[in-house]
Write a structure and sequence with these properties.
Belongs to the fucolectin family. Acts as a defensive agent. Recognizes blood group fucosylated oligosaccharides including A, B, H and Lewis B-type antigens. Does not recognize Lewis A antigen and has low affinity for monovalent haptens. InterPro entries: BG_Antigen-Binding_Lectin, FTP1, Galactose-bd-like_sf. GO terms for molecular function: fucose binding; metal ion binding. Keywords: Calcium, Disulfide bond, Lectin, Metal-binding. The protein contains no helices and eight strands. It is mainly β. It has one domain: Jelly Rolls (Sandwich), CATH 2.60.120.260. Strands 1, 3, 4, 5, 6 and 8 form a six-stranded antiparallel beta sheet that branches. It has a two-stranded antiparallel sheet with strand order 2-7. The radius of gyration is 14 Å and the shape is globular. The mean pLDDT is about 95.
């Protein structure tokens, strides 16, 4: 399957600076250093989202975590998939919770064919920065036979 996130558009709750732009997570570069990653400002419930432009049946979301520092910030993040933008997509069905994190790791989360146009990754319960170095989304178009 192809990484359908590469064709999407990304947005996030805030930007810490001009470097940590949301597009960094869907540019195909898995480098885990700060300059290759997204970075929100510090706040409660930070989120990042990719718009796939149309609904896909998602088999897996693969996340590369930051490796130069601060990788523990991703602990407690949730992955949501669906077609709603209500509360920035955090009311969509949950694919997975990120409970264990490691320095610069790339981890795959199975999403059991959840259908959605929007993939939202959020840290819902605490004040934090959200940093993602790469987000890959694997799935097929809804209604396609492959």
């Amino acid at each position: 399957q192809n990484n359908v996130a590469l064709k999407g558009t990304a947005t996030q709750s805030s930007k810490r600076d001009q470097l940590g732009v949301p597009e960094h997570a869907i540019n195909g570069n898995k480098n885990s250093g700060y300059l290759s990653c997204t970075h929100t400002g510090h706040g409660t419930g930070p989120w990042w989202r990719v718009d796939l432009q149309q609904p896909y049946r998602i088999s897996a979301v693969v996340i590369t975590n930051r490796g130069d520092c601060c990788w523990e910030r991703l602990r407690g993040a949730e992955i949501y998939i669906g077609n709603s933008l209500e509360k920035n997509g955090t009311l969509n069905p949950r694919c997975a919770s990120i409970s264990s994190v490691a320095k610069g790791s790339t981890d795959s989360y199975c999403c059991n064919q959840l259908v959605g146009r929007y993939i939202t990754i959020a840290i819902p319960t605490r004040e934090e920065y959200l940093t993602l170095c790469e987000v890959e989304v694997y799935g097929g178009l809804v209604g396609s036979s492959c």
